[in-house]
Amino acid sequence: MSQKTEHTFVALLEKHQNIVHKICRLYTNDQAAHNDLFQEITIQLWKAYPKFRGDAKFSTWMYRVALNTAITLYRKSKRKIKTQEFENVAFKIKAEEYDDTTEKQLSVMYAAIKELNDIDKALVFLYLEDKNYSEISDTLGISEVNARVKMNRIKKKLRSILNP
Amino acid sequence: MDELELLKKDWKKQEKNLPHIEAQEIYPILLKKSSSIVKWIFFISLGELALGVFLNVFLADSEYWKTVEDIHLKNGFIVFYIVSYAITLFFIYKFYKRYKAISTTDSAYLLMKNILKTRKIVKYYIFYVLASSAITAFVTFIFTLLYSSDFDNIREDMNWPKAIGFGLLVIIIFVVVLWLIYSLLYGILLKKLHRNYKELKRLEL
């Protein structure tokens, strides 16, 4: 691929990298694995870039490739680097912005989301990213109705965790 | 308020806590090699296809053909080898086509489906190799009993049903054990993929 293409790709990835970081945080538990997955997603995005048609939004296309890498292609690295576990620290919000109860609720919910299976995590992720059900069903290859049903079940599950 | 709506509000805020990688740090990543499951599958599958070809080509040396000739199987085996090469080529072609169809820009479901289909081609190939090896081993065993000079002295008094039954049993046990080990390894390699695929299949279009 030409240098110009490479520069354009890197600029786009730099701009939209938050999407990749959020996926990495959802699917990994430590910094080493986060970096590993970030690297694999970047490689897969770069490999798939020739297929990217300008008519679609780069970020939309990115969601698909990045999630596919996290759910399907990524093989956990065998490296055992002792790093601090993210747990909920990764998602910790500034305490002063919420009262104690809200903060606690959020913390419990983030922990619960980390415990979901790969597919449910992807659903919640796309939902939190404000994607509509048509986009969610397109990205995952499931029906819109099933995406809604599944999302409602996850909501119910989270509710029951918060209010046992 | 809906719990997830609360989370959605917070989700945006946590963006400022995310790491930031500079463009200069992205360039070297583009040069790195992928270690994805597809790459693993590709190399393992190539190894398996090569193993079949290796067994056909390198184990069949002149001594082997001499033995085969002695037990009157040379012509039969020539036909078998020609058919076997054609079948192997067909599997390689199918594998290549399926492998090319794997695309990360497809939906998650389609991507998983294509990976599993690609892998299945190689699984069928291994099944074919084991089955054809079992059949040739059995035919060789029978013809050895019938024509090999090693059995000239005992051929008259041989209990044929017992000998054939014993040969068949050994070959079947051998092949079944190899198939079970193979399926187990295959299952371990694709455990996560199978689990996620099953989950998506339930929610399929």
Automatic annotation (TrEMBL), chain A:
This is ECF RNA polymerase sigma-E factor. It comes from the Bacteria. The gene is rpoE_1. It comes from Mesonia oceanica.
